[in-house]
């Protein structure tokens, strides 16, 4: 069943809390394909991606009675998927840093999703450019090159505490920047993880 224009997060939550399985199915149909692409991009496994996304929706159903009335399901589900990816990678004891080719995005995403992705990328890069140079360098070494705080401290000949402080300030600025421009914290986390 397609989501119609009158389908809102608030109305959906009310239906979920009345055990309306059709509302749950609508959410699944709306977000599961994109979530699978998001998780697969990081885990490089269709089976793991499907399992992680199913787990996200299962947790959503189990917690439906306790969800905030102002929930934004897209942000909630992406944040849940983000944590599922982190947990899976921690279990595997390694991080995957391979870039997703642009042709992959074009093959798997609709034109609207590609445009949304490109706009988010531009917005993210604009925010990053506003960080002070040293903070931007530390952020890039951590989020884009995957270096640990200790390794960054060693490379730049500064203390680990200094690296931690710079990362804290960078993340705080980026989250506030996203929120100030009308974007949810969940979308900010997606952007930060996609480019990290």
Describe this structure in words.
The chain is mainly α and 196 residues long. The chain has two domains: 1-96, Rna Polymerase Sigma Factor, Chain: A (Orthogonal Bundle), CATH 1.10.1740; 109-196, Winged helix-like DNA-binding domain superfamily/Winged helix DNA-binding domain (Arc Repressor Mutant, subunit A, Orthogonal Bundle). 74% of the residues lie in helices and 0% in strands. It contains ten helices and no strands. It has helices at residues 9-16, 21-43, 46-62, 73-92, 102-108, 111-129, 133-144, 149-156, 160-180, 185-194. Helix 1 packs across helix 2. The longest helix is centred in the N-terminal third of the chain and has 23 residues, at 21-43. It is elongated and about 55 Å long.
Unreliable stretches (pLDDT < 50, length at least 5) are 1-6, 93-109, 191-196
- Summed up, the helix count is 10
Task: Identify the overall geometry.
Answer: elongated
Task: Give me the Rg, rounded.
Answer: 18 Å
**CATH architecture assignment name of the largest domain:** Orthogonal Bundle
What is the count of structural domains? Answer: 2
Mean pLDDT: 76
Order of H and E elements: HHHHHHHHHH
CATH H-tier superfamily of the largest domain:
RNA polymerase sigma factor, region 2, helix turn helix motif
- Please summarize the sheet with the most strands: none
How far do the termini sit from each other? 35 Å
Content of β-strand: under 5%
Kindly report the CATH topology of the largest domain: Rna Polymerase Sigma Factor, Chain: A
Number of strands: 0
Structure classification: mainly alpha
Question: What proportion of the residues is helical, as a percent range?
Answer: over 70%
The level-1 CATH class of the largest domain? Mainly Alpha
Family: Belongs to the sigma-70 factor family. ECF subfamily.
Organism: Hymenobacter bucti
Protein name: RNA polymerase sigma-70 factor
Domain RNA polymerase sigma factor 70 region 4 type: 125-174
């Amino acid at each position: 069943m397609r989501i119609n224009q009158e389908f809102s997060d608030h109305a959906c939550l009310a239906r979920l809390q009345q055990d309306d399985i059709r509302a749950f199915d609508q959410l699944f149909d709306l977000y599961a394909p994109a979530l699978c692409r998001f998780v697969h991009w990081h885990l490089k496994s269709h089976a793991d991606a499907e399992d992680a996304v199913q787990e996200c929706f299962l947790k959503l159903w189990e917690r439906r009675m306790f969800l905030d009335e102002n929930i934004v399901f897209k942000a909630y589900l992406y944040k849940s998927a983000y944590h599922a990816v982190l947990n899976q990678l921690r279990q595997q004891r390694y991080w995957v840093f391979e870039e997703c080719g642009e042709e992959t995005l074009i093959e798997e995403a609709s034109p609207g999703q590609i445009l949304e992705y490109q706009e988010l990328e531009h917005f993210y890069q604009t925010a990053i450019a506003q960080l002070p140079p040293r903070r931007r360098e530390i952020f890039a070494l951590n989020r884009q090159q995957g270096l640990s705080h200790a390794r960054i401290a060693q490379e730049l000949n500064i203390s680990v505490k200094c690296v931690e402080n710079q990362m804290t300030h960078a993340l705080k600025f980026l989250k506030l920047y996203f929120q100030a421009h009308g974007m949810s914290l969940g979308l900010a986390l997606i952007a930060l993880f996609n480019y990290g």
